[in-house]
Amino acid sequence: MKENSESSSEYGDISPISEHILFEKYEIGRLLGCGAFAKVYQARNIQTGQTVAIKAISKQKIVREGFVSNIKREISIMRKLHHPYIIKLFEVLATKAKIYFVMEFVTGGELFSRIPKCRCREDLTRRYFQQLISAVGYCHSHGVFHRDLKPENLLVDANGDLKVSDFGLSAVTSQNRVLYTACGTPAYVAPEILARKGYSGAKIDIWSCGVILFVLNSGYLPFDCQCLTGLYQKIHKGEFCVPKWTSPGLRHLFSRLLDTNPATRITVDEIIQDPWFSKNYKEIKFHEHENNYKNDGSGNILNAFDIISFSPGIDLSGLFENFDNSAAVESDRFITAETQESIATKIGEVAVGEKLTMVKQGDWKLNLEGPNGKLFVGIEMYQLTESLAVVEVRSYEGVWKKRFRPCLNTLIYHPEASVE
Questions:
Q1: Sorted alphabetically, which keywords does the UniProt record give (predicted)?
Q2: With DSSP H G I counted as helix, E B as strand and the rest as coil, what are the percentages for the chain, rounded to 5?
Q3: Is 163 annotated for ligand binding?
Q4: Fewer C-beta neighbours within 10 Å, C or N terminus of the chain?
């Protein structure tokens, strides 16, 4: 197998043993796809003959971009989930430069590639959605909330069944705990995440399921705008138009799934009881099991499953022990009722004390730079409503949350203190 020349500096050969064999266990086949931080290959277990998919992740890239916690989270979550509609993670291997996810090989590709140019038939839409809710309900019952559900993260196997993948943004918590971390893909993100009110992981997954169902039925997104500000406004207001071919039962379900009020948004249990959803629905029965894997004892391979299985704190720090994480990227998002001028003024005051220079990139974009123009903080603002704006921050070396965020409490909009 030969890698593309343009990425060889980041990844090099996939195998530390030879060009075709990974750890004397997996024969590497064709390249299936490339992402920002990883390449996915088809491979064969030499011992069993089983076809698998191997995701090769560059440690250097994920450390540089601040995604270490996402990888650790994905490993620990996928270890505990065993469901027919969730992709299986067989084992995790690592070298000094890379981490390898050995996963179930799914032949059908992404759900998006299976959606016709216009839309899916309603019976097929229902079938996919039933499988999605089965998987999501299972995750929620185990205290796992995906937080980035979208067709790109849904695969289809040879039998035409869904497989939920990519748990890198998932959260593990109790059903009643409130989450605050900004996450998700803009077109699929729930309005309460934009408003930074604190949110239920279960409720935002339901919202994303509603967007996915809409795409399956319609062939297009319910909330779509080339301008991010316009997209945020539509999501915030819950503005969408159901196509004329949509059946009355499905129209009603959309109104419950895409309810901008999370308190009244439909739950998984209520979805299962919904007349449109329950047609021909059969709850699947399966036996959960734990897969047991053994370290091969070679010394240069770190098997994360061993760490997860025997460490009470699920300490995965060893995966990244050879990398410096000081330059990790952090992100933040909050709602404000202040004008961009007021926000810029306050940030500028703090920047002076930190010996950083504030550089305006436009009315709604700021950079905070150090000596020689080194970027420490990038800030973008988007108008959400006439009186509210979204502020998004990308920061390097921990500057924002340590120095700036504590000084901005008076600028942050707190909806619980307002009168609607």
A1: ATP-binding, Kinase, Nucleotide-binding, Serine/threonine-protein kinase, Transferase
A2: 35, 20, 40
A3: no
A4: C
